[in-house]
Amino acid sequence: MNGTKYANAVGAVRAMENTLLSKSDVDQLIGSRSRAEIEAVLASKNGGRKAEDLVSVWEMLREYAPDCKELEILLYKNDFHNLKAVLKAVISNRELSDYYISPSNIGLSVIADAINKKDYSLLPEYMRKAAEEAYELVTNTLDGQLSDSLIDRASMQAMQKSAEEYGSDFMQRYAQLITACADIKTAYRCSIQNKSAQFMENAVCGSRELDREQLIKAALGGTESLFAFLDGTSYSEAAALLKSSAAQYEKWCDDSVMELAETARMQAFGPEPLAAYYIAKEAEIKNLRILSVCKEFGADKETITERMRKLYV
Fold first, then answer.
1. What is the pLDDT of residue 142?
2. Torsion angle of C-alpha atoms 113, 167, 155, 201, degrees rounded to 10
3. Taking residues 167-193, what's their average pLDDT?
4. How far apart (Å, rounded) are the C-alpha atoms in residues 86 and 89?
5. What is the 3-state secondary structure (H, E, C) of 133-182?
6. Which of 112, 147, 204, 209 is 20 to 30 A from 313, comparing alpha carbons?
7. What's the predicted TM-score (pTM) here?
8. What's the whole-number mean pLDDT along residues 161-175?
């Protein structure tokens, strides 16, 4: 990518990083005793302004980099989730908004029109085949789980393909990491549930880091076979956590994404710092949700601290 193209955007992101929650901020939030105290901490961090949500963060980044294909890759997971949302709404006669996630690259009405009209040319190229196959699958079999698995795999395939075509080394590593984390979880669930080889072929994506066929073969042999295979990969630590705690595995995945984002943070130019800031904001919002749930159920400070994701600052 042209190094100086996003110089102004990187400068703006540097300034906005000061509004991200620090460790001391999070410690105050964890120690808060009421919703009012939490709101006071958040208000002081944002100068009394309402905290930004992901939609406003995304809109800001797109103002600075409206034509950046690399940034769009960050929202592929939302795009494909919304494809699942449309299919669920069509099958169950529910409102589309019941399942919608934003921000996204593709408007929900666009996906709905493509599905209802069976005109998949209305969709971006990276989604067309998956949309057609998923629609045929779910309408012919009424197997929502199978359809969802196909869409999830297509999402990761699209991320990897676009990252190789448009993305920097950072974005390619991001796509690989997201895929590997999802594939490990999928293989583990399939192994526990004794899913067939055909189901796994439909659900597991594969990547340069984790060979698809080897992962499926290991999962078909049972959980011990799967963990033995993963023990010989760079994901051995993650596998050990998954073996004892799904929650700790999810935390490991989120923290690994944040560690990757930190490698892009200090770059002076290019779109990488913009992508890293979005990832950091996404993690911050997740931390606030975890905090809210833990507070609601009366979790102690130690438990909340253990569940907090890695911070960007």
1. 83
2. 140
3. 96
4. 5
5. HHHHHHHHHCCHHHHHHHHHHHHHHHHHHHHHHHCCHHHHHHHHHHHHHH
6. 209
7. 0.93
8. 94
